[in-house]
Amino acid sequence: MALSLAFAALALAVMWHRWGGTVEDSLAYFNTARYLRGEVPFAELRAPFPYRVTIPALAALWPGDLRSGFATLNWLATAGTAVTLSYLVFRAGGERRRVLLAGLLAIVSVPTYWYAPYLLTDPGAIFGRSVFALGVVTGQPWLALAGGLFATTVREENILLLAWLLVFGRVGWLRGGIVLALAAIWLIVVRWYVFPGLPTYLWVPNIGTVIAALRDQRSLLSLVSAGVIVIPLAVLAWRHVPERIRPLKGILLMMAVPPLYAALSVRIEGRAIWSLYPFLIPIAVFAPGLIRRREK
């Protein structure tokens, strides 16, 4: 409990300076929440952002100022991610300092400072992914299903997590199939019945997009700052992780595909690496030499 409160306080301190800001994508999510409150017309919505409705809907239901409510949800999700990843490392046999490091890597990071206070859906999706990862590592399929389903309602690409559970036999076909079907139904209902008639969009890989991204110093700096610590540590730890952590390596590679496709089609920034923290951090904290004292 004390560690959870400490993580919550630390996350609040890191996020406070940029609390409730809007820029680029976050404005689209903010308008979605405002639409759900009846403050803006349907014409203000821009696909695909309204389809990721869960966090904006919760923010719209939150009493008081919409910006503050949205940011508060992101704060709770960020603190929850730190607690979940720390517990995951503990259950995987990590020594106390590795447990603490997992939470610190989730909070004391450029993405948490730069993106988490904004009105984005990423913190909610990352929290769902963390719960999914905990379920996989601890052998609790119901927890993995719940985390994967919640993450899918936040961002559509997380349906891959539910498919992974089925393909690799982590859940029974009946139970897993039902949850996967529920996730698919959710996506269909939101897309064609809750927000019908929005202008269609299509992401197509384009070499011009890649060249533009390589010339965008801000995007490159965002990528480097998000991955400069966790990626090298994860590379060092790749062959040394405990048996329980090993499934996360395959999941990490699988979930790297959607942001890679986005990089080829739209743009790329540090949020792409941030979204992989639930799988990167449990690997990274087991880098050899990171904790010098022998584990008991």
TrEMBL record:
The keyword Transmembrane is assigned to this record: yes
Keyword Hydrolase: no
UniProt keyword annotations, A-Z: Membrane, Transmembrane, Transmembrane helix
Membrane-spanning segments: 72-90, 99-116, 131-151, 172-194, 220-238, 274-291
The name this protein goes by in its record: Glycosyltransferase RgtA/B/C/D-like domain-containing protein
Protein source organism: Pseudoduganella plicata
